[in-house]
């Protein structure tokens, strides 16, 4: 309306109105300009203050560092693919070819400012080739800025190495000397920290397991060998008729009293926890009731037990099970797997005859161990019935003991040297446990043909003669006596069996005896089905004073053994079998109880497990009731198997990331402490 009025007014009034509007617009523009200038001055002041403070300078430096790191990283994100492996290079590359190779730089040798040599190791770290770099190429300065052991991609021209005959090496050669690469370009893919010192003499700690693997070819080759052993085992099992089927079973199981201590996994549901499986035993038996006739897997297993050189809290088993089968069937399959592994990977042909068998009683009696090394003799014999009582009383406080003996033959030792050897051993820390045996320390005698009764005077004439006939000692041999209680064998070894093994290896170490060679396989059979409970083993928690020698699912061996279940369970022989080689137990298996009623008798009437514990096996019992066929199986300790094949003393040498003797992974610091927040999440609290 105002605008309309202005339009209707006189021309003079319209001119005044326009001037007023122009003044208002000019004032608005002026105020806005002043505000902008004030804002800019404020920004400049704050910027000046920001750049002058220590904090701002540090942030500026951090920004520059981050920018630099990201720029370097960009060069490693986009790099050329390799045109050749080192084997392919040897096989097909010609002089003048342009190639792209990947690998790790070795130490650089600078002949001058303008010429450098460096060896490039391939990604498998099995082969290396020489790289030549000259200042006339832009890549020269880039190469000189890189650390040894850094991963790179290089482009270069193939040349025949000067002085070479031109004849190519075999494709698996470690050092390629017939060819070399003239460097054209290089891409740094990461930097090897200058703080890390890596030389052939460097010994890395368990905290730096990745550097142990990187610097020790034997560790890397063990992992490759292990992978090949898996492949060969799979081929053998899947080539059977009918073939074995690889089935993965759950790792989150439940706690059941099989015999070993378990690792528990708490959940967020209050009071509920999983247990990591000691083995896939129950799942694989359920598979037999599920119509899977032959199962296998490389199973991860977990046991919270004391650790030794051949044990880890988590380990791998080659696990298998067969329905409508006996233990004999399983042993034949495993013997074929072993023959295939030894032939394919070691180039060694094993006997086609069935492996030797030794009963548990014979193994314990003759060698003092249920996993004997039978290659070096030193068999144990019982001698208490021929010894005078005064001698027995001198070596043991036990009444009516069993006394056993073995001899250690010394190749060319004199009696004095033998005496020095055994004295030094018994005085060492290794001999302490034998001296401190509560059943009495070992009786030591050196056979000396120049002494009365050849050094066996304490035996008396008659006993000395009988011992000589039994043991057949030679001049300088060591005769060892050891007493034990007159009770049936139980457990895995006897004191004299442990002493036999320890003395033999000490004799090998000191050069008295040669180290045994070869592989001596045998099956240990006829174990007792039940053994006296051991306070160091959890067992099945029954009240009978007995525990399953292996696990409570093992079947009695014969109909006669079934008859003994209720009358004399300690005398029942199990249909169990352990595979042993060179004193190492590779694995064990058994025929299983496939009848739910018999399984319940074992749980309730023989082991006298409480109903609460029996109910923990309800899933298995229900599966057995569903017409489960007879079945048998075995589990081979895969880590131990590889260690034996490669001649390693410890399974840690064939595992990528093993635990220490305390069950810890020093590299990642596990196990770790639980925070209060994590404990609360799982409804847990720590006791004081």
Which descriptors would you attach to this protein?
single chain, OB fold (Dihydrolipoamide Acetyltransferase, E2P), BirA Bifunctional Protein, domain 2, 21 helices, 5-stranded mixed beta barrel, Gyrase A, domain 2, alpha+beta, globular, 688 residues
Short structural description:
With 688 residues, the chain is of the alpha+beta class. Keywords: Aminoacyl-tRNA synthetase, ATP-binding, Ligase, Nucleotide-binding, Protein biosynthesis.
Question: What is the topological layout?
Answer:
Layout: H1 2-8, H2 11-52, H3 54-77, H4 86-92, E1 98-112, E2 115-121, E3 128-134, H5 139-144, E4 151-160, E5 175-188, H6 209-215, H7 217-238, E6 245-246, E7 264-266, E8 273-275, H8 281-288, E9 294-302, E10 314-323, H9 327-346, E11 356-359, H10 360-367, E12 381-382, H11 389-395, E13 402-408, H12 415-426, H13 429-435, E14 443-446, H14 460-471, E15 478-484, H15 495-510, E16 521-525, E17 530-532, E18 546-548, H16 559-567, E19 576-581, E20 584-591, H17 596-606, H18 611-614, H19 618-625, E21 631-637, H20 638-646, H21 676-681
Parallel strand pairs: 3-5, 6-9, 11-16
Antiparallel strand pairs: 1-2, 1-4, 2-3, 4-5, 7-8, 9-10, 10-21, 12-13, 13-15, 14-15, 16-19, 17-18, 19-20, 20-21
């Amino acid at each position: 309306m105002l605008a309309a009025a202005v339009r209707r007014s006189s021309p003079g009034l319209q001119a005044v109105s326009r001037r007023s509007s122009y003044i208002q617009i000019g004032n608005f523009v002026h105020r806005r300009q002043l505000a902008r200038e004030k804002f800019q001055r404020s920004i400049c002041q704050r910027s000046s203050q920001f750049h002058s403070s220590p904090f701002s300078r540090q942030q500026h430096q951090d920004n520059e560092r981050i920018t630099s790191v990201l720029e370097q990283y960009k060069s490693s994100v986009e790099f050329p693919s390799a045109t050749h492996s080192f084997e392919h290079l040897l096989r097909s590359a010609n002089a003048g070819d342009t190639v792209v190779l990947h690998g790790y730089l070795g130490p650089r040798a600078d002949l001058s400012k303008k010429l450098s040599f460096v060896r490039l190791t391939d990604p498998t770290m099995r082969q290396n080739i020489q790289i030549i770099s000259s200042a006339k190429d832009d890549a020269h300065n880039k190469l000189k800025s890189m650390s040894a052991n850094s991963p790179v991609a290089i482009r270069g021209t193939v040349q025949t190495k000067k002085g070479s005959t031109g004849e190519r090496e075999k494709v698996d050669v470690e050092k390629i000397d017939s060819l070399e690469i003239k460097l054209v370009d290089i891409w740094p893919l990461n930097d090897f920290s200058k703080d890390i010192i890596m030389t052939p003499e460097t010994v890395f700690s368990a905290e730096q397991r990745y550097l142990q693997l990187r610097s020790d070819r034997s560790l890397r080759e063990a992992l490759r060998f292990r992978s090949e052993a898996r492949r060969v085992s799979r081929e053998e099992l899947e080539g059977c008729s009918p073939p074995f089927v690889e089935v993965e079973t759950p790792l989150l199981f439940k706690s059941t009293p099989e015999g070993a201590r378990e690792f528990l996994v708490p959940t967020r549901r209050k009071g509920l926890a999983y247990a990591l499986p000691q083995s896939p035993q129950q799942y694989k038996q359920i598979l037999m009731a599920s119509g899977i006739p032959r199962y296998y897997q490389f199973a991860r297993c977990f046991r919270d037990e004391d650790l030794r050189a051949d044990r880890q809290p988590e380990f791998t088993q080659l696990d298998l099970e067969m329905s409508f089968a006996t233990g004999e069937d399983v042993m034949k399959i495993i013997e074929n797997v072993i023959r295939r592994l030894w032939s394919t990977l070691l180039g060694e042909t094993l006997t086609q005859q069935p492996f030797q068998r030794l009963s548990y009683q014979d193994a314990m009696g003759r060698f003092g161990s249920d996993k004997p090394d039978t290659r070096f003799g030193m068999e144990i014999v019982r001698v208490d019935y021929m010894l005078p009582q005064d001698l027995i009383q001198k070596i043991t406080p036990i009444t009516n003991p069993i006394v056993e003996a073995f001899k250690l033959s010394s190749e060319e030792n004199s009696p004095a040297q033998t005496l020095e050897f055994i004295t030094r051993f018994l005085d060492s820390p290794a001999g302490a446990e034998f001296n401190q045996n509560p059943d009495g320390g070992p009786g030591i005698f050196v056979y000396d043909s120049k002494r009365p009764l050849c050094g066996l005077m304490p035996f008396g004439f008659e006993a000395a003669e009988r011992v000589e006939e039994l043991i057949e000692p030679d001049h300088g041999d060591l005769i060892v006596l050891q007493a034990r209680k007159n009770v049936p064998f139980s457990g895995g070894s006897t004191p004299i069996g442990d002493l036999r093994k320890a003395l033999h290896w000490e004799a090998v170490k000191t050069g008295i005896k040669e180290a045994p060679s070869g592989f001596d396989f045998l099956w240990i059979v006829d174990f007792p089905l039940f053994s006296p409970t051991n306070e160091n083993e959890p067992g099945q928690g029954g009240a009978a004073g007995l525990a399953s020698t292996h696990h409570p699912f093992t079947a009695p061996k014969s109909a006669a053994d079934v008859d003994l279940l209720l009358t004399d369970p300690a005398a029942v022989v199990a249909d169990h079998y352990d595979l042993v080689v060179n004193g190492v137990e590779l694995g064990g298996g058994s025929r299983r109880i496939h009848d739910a009623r018999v399984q319940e008798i074992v749980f309730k009437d023989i082991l006298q497990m409480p109903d609460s514990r029996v109910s923990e096996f309800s899933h298995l019992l229900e599966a057995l009731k569903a017409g489960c066929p007879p079945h048998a199986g075995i589990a081979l300790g895969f880590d131990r198997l590889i260690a034996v094949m490669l001649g390693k003393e410890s399974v840690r040498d064939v595992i990528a990331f093993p635990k220490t003797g305390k069950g810890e992974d020093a590299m990642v610091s596990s196990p770790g402490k639980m925070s209060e927040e994590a404990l609360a999440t799982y409804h847990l609290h720590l006791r004081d």
